[in-house]
Design brief:
Blueprint: E1 5-7, E2 41-45, H1 59-112, H2 115-119, H3 122-135, E3 141-148, E4 153-156, H4 170-177, E5 182-185, H5 194-199, E6 203-211, E7 217-225, H6 227-319, H7 323-350, H8 353-357, H9 360-372, E8 377-382, H10 385-388, H11 392-412, E9 417-425, E10 428-435, H12 442-447, H13 455-465, E11 469-474, E12 480-487
Parallel strand pairs: 8-9
Antiparallel strand pairs: 1-2, 2-11, 3-4, 3-7, 5-6, 6-7, 9-10, 10-12, 11-12
């Protein structure tokens, strides 16, 4: 609902301008009066984001939201599926590489390895190299190495690495200590992988222990091409994407009729709600007219008749020489006429005929005449009704705020000057009412309203309920500047 907030920005802390807020109908410039002490803007009433009615339903907007949601799901599925497929492919490739290494170690390397090869004998190295190139290298295996237990390379298909000491990683030492096969994606940052790092090749690395005829332990290591991971990842992704996309498309096809049905029901419910709101507004207007007609045809006419009767009785008393009675009757007659004026003013407040018959501008002009009769100078600077583009409810809100602020000015600022400006600015209509009266303390007025004076709180509630913003800039001795901002209604889209 309404909120109260004092803001101190460059705009909002400017002095209250009690000069004219625009040109009059003739277009002549008016000389501004001297500004009074500055007063900050205080936000009295603003629309509650939760309470403001939602914009009309739009099939185009809902369809766009559905398409965006489908695209977002597709993007998430694509990225997530790609990552999941690559991870699964790497896992499968590592497992396959471990199986390949076991087969090669048991079937080819173990029978061909000798103690002389481990000791660096050239003939043993040549014989083992021939076996490796004939039976192991080629296909998916691209590198073969044989390590001594101290971390020295005893054999490598890249001969420049033989005899070099690089040391064993913890995993490799554990594989030797507790015989098992280990497989992983190669780390090209290791020194022994410098040649592969230059080529930029990503490989699958597998190692396991082997033994010489004399029982000496060596570490057999092979590197397999990463291409198999990419191929397997593509296969998994295509299968995963096919199932996922077909399921998603089927879901969209099945969901479309449901969305259309729900959209139709929601639109009908909204139309029904708008119809009920229009009926409520019409009923309120009709009730106001009925009350106004009842007051006019009943108490007002009775009081008018009473006034005539009292006037006749006054004349009779004077003719009969009863001056005291005539004076009392004149007092009664004046009181009756005052009551008639008060009731007629109330009739205009309940149902201003000029607002519905001649428009907002004419109603404000009538209101200005009423306030002028109470000793206040009023300058009205409204735009034409067509230029404002307000609907009936918005016109009633503007009139109600103008009425309350002008009557407050007449009560507290007279004799003085009040300027009312009504303008369209950007996508809103702004009503500004400025007087050069004594002003008041907003915080104190909101905290402790005078008994029976709820006008300020009612204005706050009216503005908040209508989605408008009501602000005031005032302080004791600084005059009062009211500002009502009525935003445009959002137009429904097809």
């Amino acid at each position: 609902m309404d909120t109260t907030r004092t803001t101190e920005s460059s705009e909002q802390t400017r002095s209250v301008d009690h000069g004219p807020l625009g040109r009059d109908r003739a277009g002549a410039d008016e000389t501004p009066t001297a500004p009074l002490p500055r007063a900050p803007w205080t936000l009295l009433g603003a629309a509650d984001p939760v309470a403001v009615a939602e914009p009309p339903l739009s099939s185009r907007r809902l369809l766009l939201q559905l398409v965006v949601a489908v695209i977002a799901v597709l993007a998430v599925v694509t990225i997530g599926g790609s990552l999941a497929a690559r991870r699964l492919a790497e896992r499968e490739a590592v497992a396959d590489a471990a199986d390949t290494a076991d087969v090669l170690a048991e079937g080819i390397v173990q029978p061909a390895i000798t103690d002389a090869l481990i000791d660096g004998d050239p003939d043993a190295r040549a014989a083992f190299d021939a076996v490796v190139r004939r039976q192991i290298l080629g296909g998916i295996v691209v590198r073969v190495r044989l390590w001594r237990s101290d971390g020295t390379i005893a054999y490598a298909d890249q001969a420049s690495l033989e005899g070099k000491h690089f040391g064993l990683e913890d995993e490799e030492r554990e594989a030797l200590a507790s015989p098992r096969t280990e497989a992983e994606i190669s780390d090209l940052s290791r020194p022994e992988n410098a040649l592969d790092r230059i080529k930029g090749e990503k490989l699958v690395e597998v190692y396991r222990p082997v033994w010489t005829p004399d029982g000496r332990t060596a570490l057999f290591e092979i590197y397999e091409s990463y291409d198999q991971v990419s191929r397997r990842s593509g296969q998994l992704w295509r299968g995963f994407a096919g199932v996922t996309l077909s399921t998603l498309l089927l879901f969209v096809v099945l969901l479309a009729p449901v969305v259309v049905h729900l959209l139709g029901r929601a639109r009908r419910a909204q139309e029904q709600r708008e119809h009920l709101l229009r009926r409520a507004v019409d009923a309120s207007s009709a009730e106001r007219r009925r009350i106004a007609a009842t007051l006019h045809d009943g108490p007002v006419q009775d009081l008018a008749a009473t006034s005539f009767v009292v006037a006749g009785a006054t004349a009779s008393a004077e003719n009969g020489g009863n001056g005291a009675l005539a004076e009392d009757l004149r007092t009664v007659s004046a009181s009756v006429r005052t009551s008639i004026r008060a009731l007629r003013t109330l009739l205009v407040e309940i149902y201003p005929p000029s607002l519905s018959r001649a428009g907002l501008g004419a109603a404000l002009a009538d209101l200005g005449q009423t306030v002028r009769a109470e000793g206040l100078q009023v300058r009205l600077l409204p735009d034409a009704d067509d230029a404002l583009g307000l609907d009936g409810a918005q016109e009633r809100l503007v009139y109600r705020v103008a009425e309350e602020t002008l009557r407050n000015a007449a009560k507290h600022a007279a004799p003085g000057t009040v300027t009312l400006t009504l303008r369209r600015h950007d996508h809103a209509v702004k009503l500004e009412v400025v007087d050069d009266g004594p002003g008041f303390d907003v915080a104190e007025r909101l905290r402790e309203p005078a008994p029976g004076h709820l006008g300020l709180q009612l204005l706050c509630d009216l503005a908040a309920d209508a989605g408008a913003t009501l602000e005031v800039a005032t302080a004791p001795g600084a005059g009062t500047h009211w500002r009502l901002t009525v935003p445009d209604h959002e137009e429904p889209r097809a």
